[in-house]
Amino acid sequence: MKNILFATLVDINSLDESGIYQDLMRELISLGNKVYIISPAEKRQNIPTRFSRKDYGGILKVRIGNIQKTGKIRKGVSTLTLEKKIVKAVSKYFDEIQFDLVIYSTPPVTFCKLVKFIKNRDGAKSYLLLKDIFPQNAVDLGLLSRRSFVYRHFKKKEKTLYELSDQIGCLSQANVEYLLKCNPHIDSKKVHVCPNSISPAPFMGAPDENKKNAIREKYEIPPGKKVFVYGGNLGKPQSVDFIVSCLKINRIKDDRYFLICGEGTDAGVISKFIKEEKPDNVKLLKLLPQAEYDELLLACDIGLIFLDHRFTIPNFPSRLLSYMQCGLPVLVCTDSNTDVGKTVVDGEFGWWCASDNSKYFSQFADEICKIDDETLKSVGRKGRQYLEDNFLASQAAKTIYESSFGWQIEIVSHLIF
Fold first, then answer.
1. Which of 1, 119, 181, 328 is within CB 3.0–4.6 Å of 303 for a Cys-Cys bond?
2. Containing structural domain, residue 310
């Protein structure tokens, strides 16, 4: 048995929840380990730092400043101060626990002090789940200048984090190649692929028409149309202006319907478009609870992914897994550097187009709308199979465990088919 510490800025309150990190932690626990999770409690939640002890280990909620949905200055200050707060909380609540492994994810790159503290105190191994390459992503979007103090500060933090990490798990092969190209000082032997992964719910196939129509009626989605759905963040990385341009060029097409389900700094851009132009085939919903969102996907036909065309870093959005889980084919609109489009096309469960011209998007939407429902379902089933073959949390846990400790372990699948 190993004691594992996992640090993230994702708000985790229970391992009964589903998600890429919750599913991964459950898999590590199933291998006989104790897992202790550090998760933030932002100031706006008005709760103190507290530790909830569980049979598997527990969850330490650390009170930090507001980071999500707040101004740049406040977010920056909160990010800069969270390291000290987390280390203080770990010293207080985990003073008698010796950790064998510390796992942490980006964002942020500011877990350096925590990782160094645990490694020095306990002699622990360290594993970085590289979900985001910052500050370069902010430079790509024009949010930071390479000449700024902020950029130089976080670049130094990023380099330190890589040096402190015994192993680095990247989202895809393109991610691995980018990291090593831009950071030649990193030992290539410690970098490998460890993608976003989940423990998917049993696949029940496409719902019957009565259930599908009932869900559409619940959300006031008109029948008889191909429903394209986007679920997730609506911010600068998703290029919401481009999403709106895609919606505009398709607003006169009566054979399709666009359902946007999400929140973020730029969600108001879509709200404004809907309010001013009143398109008949677009609906914006706020982010739904996971169970309701999963139900909503059953009434849809095609999942959408958007990434800003200016990205030089190869992002690989986790929202792809939600579409694959329920057997939806996907239309991916991204920059040319990420390999998420290649994955979708090579796996034969969707389509890719560049995210710099809405006409490309519309042409693909036209072709997809000509495909009969049964053919679309068969495309979606290939996505579900690709998920089961490549993106299981059990396999990610095996990758982390074997790379960290050098042990070969046998994973017993928890899937129910």
1. 328
2. 209-389
- Check: CB of residue 186 under 8 Å from CB of residue 354: no
Instruction: Find the length of the chain.
Output: 417
What's the confidence (pLDDT) of residue 416? 37
Q: With left for phi above 0 and alpha for psi between -120 and 50, is residue 139 left, alpha or beta?
A: alpha
Pair 229, 309 in one domain: yes
Q: Collapsing DSSP states into helix, strand and coil, what is residue 102?
A: strand
CATH number at residue 236: 3.40.50.2000
CB contact at 8 A, 231 and 293: yes
User: Would you call 411 exposed, middle or buried from its count of C-beta atoms within 10 A (0-12, 13-18, 19+)?
Assistant: middle
Same domain, 35 and 180: yes
Spatial CA neighbour of 93 closest among 53, 56, 65: 53
At 91-111, the pLDDT tens digits run 999 999 999 999 999 887 778
Q: Is residue 204 part of a domain?
A: no
pLDDT above 60 for 403:
yes
Q: How many Å separate Cα 173 from the centre of its chain?
A: 17
Tell me whether residue 329 is exposed, middle or buried, using C-beta atoms within 10 angstroms of its C-beta: 0 to 12, 13 to 18, 19 or more: buried
**For residues 117 and 123, what is the distance between their CA atoms, to the nearest angstrom?**
10
Q: In the chain, how many domains are there?
A: 2
Element of type H or E holding 231? strand 226-233
Q: What is d(CA 94, CA 36) in angstroms, rounded to the nearest whole number?
A: 9
What is the SS3 assignment for 304?
strand
Residue 62, H or E segment: strand 57-64
Query: 0.85 exceeded by the pTM?
Result: yes
Contact 306, 234 (CB under 8 A): no
CA distance 285 to 134: 29
Q: 233: closest CA among 263, 193, 272?
A: 263
Distances (CA, A) of 295 to 208, 234, 331: 13, 21, 20
Distance CA 94, CA 96 (A): 6
Look at residues 78, 75, 81 and name the one whose alpha carbon lies nearest to residue 143: 75
